[in-house]
Design brief:
This protein has helices at 2-16, 37-51, 65-71, 77-86, 99-105, 120-127, 184-191, 194-200, 217-234, 251-266, 277-283, 298-311, 352-364, 368-384, 409-418; strands spanning 27-34, 56-60, 88-93, 132-138, 149-150, 156-157, 162-168, 178-180, 209-211, 238-243, 271-276, 293-296, 319-323, 329-333. It has 421 residues and is of the alpha/beta class. It has a 10-stranded mixed β-sheet, with helices on both faces. It has a two-stranded antiparallel ribbon with strand order 5-6. It has a two-stranded antiparallel ribbon with strand order 8-9. Strand 1 (27-34), helix 2 and strand 2 form a beta-alpha-beta unit. Helix 2 crosses helix 13 (352-364), helix 2 (37-51) packs parallel to helix 15 (409-418) and helix 14 packs across helix 15. Bound molecules: 1,4-dihydronicotinamide adenine dinucleotide and magnesium ion. Magnesium ion binds next to helix 12.
């Protein structure tokens, strides 16, 4: 029963996916280098894709800090048009800065004209309604950064982590519906709630800051269903809702209720668990091997995915994919632009998170064998242990790590390419 539904669900999304009807014609991928190390790791990922035999045409899209400074818009309309046309984007990373810094760095001729900076990646998610964010955290055998814990009789255990976080990507605490000194209608509406009247009425309106946590049934249902479908498709035994329904009764409560009903009706073969986000942060270092698919709202999903990424090597290994219902897919490493490493003569950052994100893209566009080939090559390089970037050597980042034997970004990509079979 659940298998049938799984197929049905994926047919629904597949219908909207950009189809590669003629495998011989090359697909066009929108490459979004962005800022800092984003551009560096993207270049290496494209080199690996190419070496693995995946040939595409890459069109480069403008995004990031330079475009904010020069044009007053870090995500120009021409980039949005490119993504709308080609549907698939590989994205490096961007730099975001606080409001005042952003205003100061704007070109002179644009100053004082009402330009307001907002993060282009958040804009991208909202514009294309990229509501489903998938962040796998899987340990590679032999990775010196793998989490270890003390076992019985003082042994050292290295539990195998294979967790996939499904994060609702457009709503919740990151939805942007917030006020400092809320307008009168908002304040009056808040005053209709007894908890607000009892606990916050003492505070002058101008000293109030309010960020809302909005969940809609439609998109909560979609993220929970996507999590169950993934569990069925890839053989995970459980789905864990990681929220806090005992306290955040309305929003977390809605996700938990949807998950319970859905499991009963459509996925009886998948075990459903409920953990609170705070307890989950404690449990993950005790029994990470007990989790399979995790589903959460925007902020808790963000927290859980960073936390699990820490068990498998951190930012150099954390990849992600974001999808919309109409088939747009944006694939990016979880890390940012790491500006302090951006201008090194020889780049030292780990390209694996970006390369893994490119593999998620290949999975999505039905190029799974190529994705697997690349993942196997990464696994071999890591297990062999000869080529390691500075993070894998537990060095603090500086140009001298190369003399200490750390691989450069390019050398790591070369090592992966050399293992492609
Ligand atoms: P970050 O992720 O850029 O870097 C934090 C630290 O993690 C780095 O200093 C480095 O030590 C390490 N690191 C990151 N990527 C690595 C890699 N591939 N290999 C090895 N080590 C790596 O986060 P940070 O410093 O908080 O933010 C820098 C800028 O990036 C900010 O402007 C921020 O707004 C932006 N950012 C952008 C994101 C995006 O484009 N999706 C996500 C996170 C931050
Ligand atoms: Mg994060």
């Amino acid at each position: 029963m659940s298998l049938f539904l799984s197929v049905k669900y994926f047919k629904f999304t597949d219908k909207h996916k950009p189809q590669n009807k003629h495998k011989m014609t090359k697909r066009t991928i929108v490459a979004l280098p962005g800022d800092g190390i984003g551009a560096i790791v993207l270049k290496e990922a494209i080199r690996v894709l190419d070496a693995a035999g995946y040939k595409a045409d890459y069109v480069y899209g403008d995004i990031g800090w330079d475009f904010w400074c020069k044009e007053g818009n870090p995500l120009p309309q021409r980039t949005i048009d490119l993504i709308a046309k080609h549907k698939i984007a590989l994205f490096g990373a961007i730099t975001s800065k606080p409001k005042d810094d952003a205003a100061n760095e704007l070109a002179n001729e644009l100053q004082g004209k009402g330009y307001v900076y907002s993060s282009p990646i958040v804009t991208l998610r909202q514009h294309f309604n990229l509501d489903i964010c998938v962040r796998p955290c899987r340990s590679y055998k032999g990775n010196p950064l793998n989490f270890v814990r003390r076992g019985k009789n003082n042994t050292i255990d290295e539990p195998f982590v294979d967790v996939v976080i499904f994060r609702q990507n457009t709503e919740g605490l990151y939805g942007g519906v917030e006020w400092t000194n809320p307008p009168a209608q908002v304040y009056d509406a808040l005053m209709t709630h007894p908890k607000f009247r009892d606990n916050f009425a003492w505070c002058p309106r101008e000293e109030l800051a309010v960020s809302t946590r909005i969940f809609t049934y439609k998109y909560t249902e979609r993220i929970v269903r996507a999590a169950f479908e993934h569990a069925v498709k890839y053989g995970y035994k459980s789905v864990t809702v990681c929220e806090k329904p005992n306290v955040i009764r309305e929003t977390s409560g809605m996700m938990w209720k949807i998950a319970k009903e859905m499991q009963k009706k459509d996925f009886p073969g998948i075990k459903l668990n409920n953990t609170n986000i705070d307890a989950q942060m404690m449990w993950l270092t005790k029994n990470p091997e007990d989790y399979g698919v995790i589903v959460a709202g925007n902020m808790f999903g963000d927290i859980a995915s960073d936390a699990f990424a820490g068990l498998i090597g951190g930012l150099g290994f954390a990849c992600s994919a974001q999808f919309s219902a109409d088939g747009i897919g944006v694939f990016e490493p979880t890390h940012g632009s790491a500006p302090k490493y951006a201008d090194y003569k020889v780049s030292i950052v780990n390209p694996i998170a970006m390369i893994e994100s490119a593999c998620m893209m290949l999975d999505y566009i039905d190029e799974k064998p190529t994705a697997q080939k690349i993942r196997n090559a990464i696994a071999e390089v890591i297990e062999e242990g000869k080529v390691k970037t500075y993070d894998m050597m537990k060095l603090s980042g500086c140009q001298e790590v190369i003399e200490k034997g750390a691989a450069s970004t390019t050398q790591m990509a070369d090592a992966i390419i050399a293992k492609l079979k």
